[in-house]
Model the fold of this input.
Amino acid sequence: MAVVLGPNRYGKAETRVVRVAREGEVHHLKDCTVSIALSGAMEAVHLAGDNAAVLPTDSQKNTVYAFAREHGIGEIEEFALLLARHFVDSQQAVHHARVAIDEHAWVRRGPHSFVRDGTEVRTCLVHHDRDGTSSVVSGLRDLVLLNSTGSEFHGFATDRYTTLAPATDRVLATAVTAGWRHAGPGTGSSADSYASSYADSYTGARECLLEAFAGTHSLSLQQTLYAMGRRVLERRPELCEVRLALPNRHHFLVDLAPFGLDNPGEVYYAADRPYGLIEGTVLDDAAPPAGPAWD
Amino acid sequence: MAVVLGPNRYGKAETRVVRVAREGEVHHLKDCTVSIALSGAMEAVHLAGDNAAVLPTDSQKNTVYAFAREHGIGEIEEFALLLARHFVDSQQAVHHARVAIDEHAWVRRGPHSFVRDGTEVRTCLVHHDRDGTSSVVSGLRDLVLLNSTGSEFHGFATDRYTTLAPATDRVLATAVTAGWRHAGPGTGSSADSYASSYADSYTGARECLLEAFAGTHSLSLQQTLYAMGRRVLERRPELCEVRLALPNRHHFLVDLAPFGLDNPGEVYYAADRPYGLIEGTVLDDAAPPAGPAWD
Amino acid sequence: MAVVLGPNRYGKAETRVVRVAREGEVHHLKDCTVSIALSGAMEAVHLAGDNAAVLPTDSQKNTVYAFAREHGIGEIEEFALLLARHFVDSQQAVHHARVAIDEHAWVRRGPHSFVRDGTEVRTCLVHHDRDGTSSVVSGLRDLVLLNSTGSEFHGFATDRYTTLAPATDRVLATAVTAGWRHAGPGTGSSADSYASSYADSYTGARECLLEAFAGTHSLSLQQTLYAMGRRVLERRPELCEVRLALPNRHHFLVDLAPFGLDNPGEVYYAADRPYGLIEGTVLDDAAPPAGPAWD
Amino acid sequence: MAVVLGPNRYGKAETRVVRVAREGEVHHLKDCTVSIALSGAMEAVHLAGDNAAVLPTDSQKNTVYAFAREHGIGEIEEFALLLARHFVDSQQAVHHARVAIDEHAWVRRGPHSFVRDGTEVRTCLVHHDRDGTSSVVSGLRDLVLLNSTGSEFHGFATDRYTTLAPATDRVLATAVTAGWRHAGPGTGSSADSYASSYADSYTGARECLLEAFAGTHSLSLQQTLYAMGRRVLERRPELCEVRLALPNRHHFLVDLAPFGLDNPGEVYYAADRPYGLIEGTVLDDAAPPAGPAWD
Done:
């Protein structure tokens, strides 16, 4: 046996940057949390504490702030690509960069006054390698949805431990975590023209998720998951793969019989734990290999 | 010295009830978390473990669900009053009831499909005593606001430990926790006619908070707090006292000079901790005594 | 009607200070979160945005760090009193100071190496007024306890909504939040000699809570609460009042009968919500008035 | 383009089970959170809502409770393997099972009285496939460590955005998330004799992490990470791979010069965000392929 170093990465996580763009009286706001992870020729630092290849995470944080000033923050995917390429291009020891950005939404209340909008977070995850390839996954998390009818669950497998009654009308509720992989950019050159569409892509994909959740008469949450992913791929040709994680936030019909009351689908107890967790991938069968896109 | 029992209360906390009201195809949703605390002749249970006066917290939970079925859930203040009066009226040992309800907002996406709306929570805190008096405080929490200009802070006291520079243009951001006390209902009889206005009152008071925050050129967060409370009282005659807790979520202008960049109010670092915390009460000088209303 | 300013306070919340005391190779660690709230002649800032009376919360934060260097951090109650008196004594407009400190525990692993110890947090809440009076409440929170037997609950009141079965052997689990008020210091002069006993007092009171929880055959959580408070007061003459908040973290015996299994007190489901919440005060009938001690 | 279903899995997450083992007066406690994910022939449910292959997540929850009664809960790895094999062996459509268990520690205070011990959580992640192979990863998270000296960081790469000063004496603090992969069991037959060593393995590996953290004079957190992983592999021949995620919880020396004070490594500000995040794998170069072990 010999002990060796395996895959590794390091960087500054959760740098919170708020960018104000001033257009006279009218201000525009971008509120992001940026996490950077770099990897490459990092043996010496692990094995011998030699930091010559290590760009401090503090410098990475500074770069986020400086780039926000120099380039502004447009779509988060563009800003993430800008950062990822910068580290790979400027640091010889850095062979690969991963940049994840969360964007927190604000709604305008006045020319320079804003209200935070919701728990939902727009996300992106970008990789850039020194071989010139990049990958972009966009997404969201904490989009909480509920259908108060139009959901069934029956005909399932049973075993010695099954007590669940079949349901022909149940509440279906979930908090969506979704990511969608862009077919491009594969190479740096086409990236910039491509970039302009991230906003459209986000709005469109999100709308597909909402529509498919609300519009699918559900026989299982798996069926709904697949319908959501399929809708995104069918409507958004720029995307080639969707991954969804859907907790099944159980809403149990309360038994009111002991109190002489019926409960025709009116009063529910929303449980915290345990919960079902349904995870799945829907993809274009011609999608290029994902590589590290989701890591 | 003699050891004695002082003030005490007990009850079921955080019962989550989701109420669906069905109007044919169209469903309506109420999603609430209810916390009950009862007090009264509870010496025997503390001193001797005699539970004869103790209505189980499990029964309190059941009551929430049964009342949701029997009475529906209209405005949370009404539902809280209904519960509070029930426990005081039906249990001889219960002399006083406190009911707090959080309401989680949903936005409609279809006839029976909904999306959770925001981090903001509508709240109420109701007390009812066996002497017939009730108090109602309505409010909200986690309403996150930001002004990207129109805020100054200078002319402050200084001491040996002061290093803060005066600011003539800063970001002002906070997460509002607010409560407003209703002048009525003082007695049970007038309560029901009064009740119909809780929804209006909430919408109106919330709008006052938003307007005053956005519209006040702020010389300090205290000044903004007072303006917010004052606006509510001036516009809503049914309210007699407002309490606000406003964390000052500091947004520090990042020093970009080391990178040869200026930063004219564009790039900020949003800090988590520490934060300023400004708490204050604004009231009508003719307000009746608060009694236990805020406890 | 006239709108007026009511009670108010402001300050820096959650300043995290880590203090290393070096004794040659051997280091000692104090890890605290300090929250300061000042009040006094603050009308002008609320009504007119005049900050002349406002010592910035940033200066308060600086004071925490500077005092940690100048005075070290001994018992948190002493450090809180030092800060509270400083603000009242040095700022004419500050008539009253409230300082709350959380202490996070570390266990030694080497001369200068430490491991965080538990979720439990030691707390204090100190008030100092310009009339010279001070109050000190010490305590803890998130002390999680469980008895797997020795707990019953029966003979309780019942109503139409009661379905709970009497229990003669149940699991009793809680997360203790406790505070104990020191009879002294009433005035500044005696405070310092008194101060040396805070560590003893903490260790002793905490041990009383643990002993009384483990040692009480419980007929209700209220009975256990009272026994815990009583034990503290009987053993610690320096204390005059104990306040406890005990969530009843329900552990439900799982019904295994559908699987042909009995469950003789072996397999439990630990629920998150809802939970019972038992709050109570136990005090020496000769305790001096609490004043703002618990606010 | 054709839309197809990719990798997917489903199951019950975060089933909390508390198991009491009664040995006369003396009770023993196991407190676990179990998450199950099954995968296999699940096309029909995704594409057509046909649930015939879907064992309800409710049945999975029931199985956790029933198995806790029937088999007790010994080492969490054994319980996880028992569950994983059960689902694969008993459900034809389930080709692969993943079971993750968190164990929450309690310290004894009496024959049947316990105190929760720390934030630290013992973890395991088990996979079992219908081809008969299993993998076991054991680990922990939220083990919070701090060295108040013996840590340096200098000689690092610099760029235009670097302002960090070299440090020759800094505080090093982290919250360890670690997993270690067992070389066996590769096949079912040898698993049971192997199982008896999980407790030893856990205690031993944890001690290695603590020792290496405290004992390494650190030139970078990467060096410490590697030393921690290496120590585990060198001492525990039953393990073949260690993965570590170490947030660098920055403790910044407070600048007290404005107050006329020096700060010789005594007063630190502990920041929440951003933080460095160092992730790395240390492995035996003869380790068998990991397969899905870490997924």
